[in-house]
């Protein structure tokens, strides 16, 4: 499935987030600047892309129609996603943050029933509640087991305080990212393309990033030149390229929860890219033993996701709400 390949490509660029955030923390950079600068750097590039495509006016129009929705779900999808990630990286090891983040592949499946699809029938448009994708959930749990095996070899070095500050913020982020993404797809209703939506969400989240930046100036001072450079790289690779690719993939399958879960599960491959990147860039040892088995399980899980979405992708359409009510009677 093309969307899965796009998702894996996005994960490769997303991996720079964990590698460079860890690098910045090792050199004394503050998590406040790691998070806020990424989105401040993203905005000019996204603005130019939307401007060149002559789509700016439509974005502003959509945002003015529903300003509260844009502010709310941009905060959930971007601020509650990235600020906890960088905060956790300041207090927990990079492998713990990257591993815990993979909870998002299960979170994406669990929040599916919170949303509705609109279908056209002879009686007009009907809203259809999404069903819990049991098969996708089981495969996602399999992938999560693979991630856990990769992390297991380092678990004996953890303390309770490290677990609290290194895990809980990432759990919040793992649910916030798919929730904010899906809610904004719902708000936009297909009227905006991916570049427009990412630009609009970045623009709507600016008040929160400005507030965090002001707090950073007061508490930790200005960022270093090294942190500015590394955050700029994260903004381009993860913020612009990876986010756009991932949103393109989810946009293309937004009306099918099984395929959407498969695309969101591609984020598990970030662990593989992070391991490879840390070995090459930060000279960390190559994983062995259980970690190797975990890598193989992740690959198997992605293959199963691809197989099931191809085989069963259109065989189980959701049941309209009015039919469920009739069945109850």
TrEMBL record:
Transmembrane segments: 5-24, 36-56, 68-89, 95-116, 136-152, 158-177, 198-222, 228-248, 260-282, 288-308
Key words, A-Z: Membrane, Transmembrane, Transmembrane helix
InterPro entries: EmrE
Name of the featured protein: Multidrug resistance efflux transporter family protein
